[in-house]
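Most newcomers find our protein records easier to grasp once they have seen one. To make this concrete, we reproduce a full record directly below:

===
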Amino acid sequence: MNYSLAALKLLRVQLKDASETLSQNALTLGGILFQRAWVQGILVSNDGDGRLLLDDGTGVIELCLSGDFCLRHWDLGMYVMVVGGYLVRPVETPISRELGGIIRFIQVSCLGASASSPSRVLRAKAAGEEAVLREMHEVNI
C-alpha cells in the first residue's frame, strides 16, 4: 500500500468510473491515482461474517472487514465512515446479484499498517498485506 497516494472521498456512483492502472497496483479517477477510498453512509445489511452493505445515497457498496474490525458490533442503520483499500472484483457474488448494481468492492484493512511502524502489530499486519499482494496481484488492500 502506497500511503503517499490520496484516499479519495467517493460516492458509489463515482466508483464505477474508476479504472485500474496496468503499471501499478492502483486505480485512477479523473486523472488522480489512488489505492484507498473514503466512503460513508448507512449500514443496510450485515451478514455477521465481516461483509456489510453500505448505502451512501447514490448506491450500495459491499464492505469486506478484516482483523479487529470484524470484532466490532455493527448495527443496521449505523452511519459510518470507512477508509480502506479499494478492490475491484470482476465476478458477481451472490449478494451483488441479490441487490443488483454492486460493481465495486472495498477491502478494509488495518489503517496504519506499515513495515516501518514502531508497533510490532502494525508491522506484522503490513507483512501480511504484502504477502497477499505477492500472491494475488489483482487485489488492492
Observations:
- The domain at 6-135 is CATH 2.40.50.140 (OB fold (Dihydrolipoamide Acetyltransferase, E2P)).
- The two ends are 7 Å apart (CA to CA).
- The mean pLDDT is 73.
- The first strand starts at residue 6 and ends at 9.
